[in-house]
Design a protein that fits this description.
Thiol Ester Dehydrase, Chain A, two-stranded parallel ribbon, 8 strands, alpha+beta
Length: about 150
């Protein structure tokens, strides 16, 4: 269940708040192949299981940008902000890929509200850190600080 904020202003003063976790998501070869198809990144480490078996990870791995893109799946499971006229994805402050994601792994996002502030025209801008965990692994796959802006009603 996401942490619910009834309005963007309710984010203010909550810097550092732990937001909880998303559901686990399986990273199978079909998902990796689909990402390769839409991005054109068909490097063998991602899409050739036979060759990858003899590579550095012993299997195919997900693209780093596939892992990053899943943050869009995880965020609504972690945080829900209500009562705004429009939300804008501003981007990311930082992204770090810390561990490879082997095919067959399960990932989830863990969220923390890093900061929220009022910006021009009464909009509220928040930075949410999403740590993408790999089930059973000590190090996360990715840590990203996402920036969202909520325009007032």
């Amino acid at each position: 269940m996401p942490v619910i904020f009834e309005s963007p202003r309710d984010l203010l003063g909550k810097d550092g708040l732990e937001l909880g976790t998303s559901d686990w998501t399986l990273i199978d070869q079909a998902r990796i192949d689909g990402f390769a198809e839409v991005t054109g990144d068909r490097q063998w480490i991602h899409v050739d299981p036979a060759r990858a078996k003899t590579g550095p990870f012993g299997t195919t791995i997900a693209h780093g940008y596939l892992t990053l893109s899943l943050v869009n799946l995880f965020l609504p499971q972690i945080i829900e902000v209500r009562r705004f006229s429009m939300g804008i994805n501003i981007g990311c402050d930082s992204v770090r890929f810390l561990s490879p994601v082997k095919v067959g792994s399960r990932l989830r996002g863990v969220g923390q509200l890093i900061k929220a502030e009022e910006v021009k025209n009464g909009a509220i801008q928040s930075t949410v850190r999403v740590t993408v965990e790999i089930e059973g692994e000590p190090k996360p796959a990715c840590i990203v600080d996402t920036i969202s802006r909520y325009m007032p009603e």
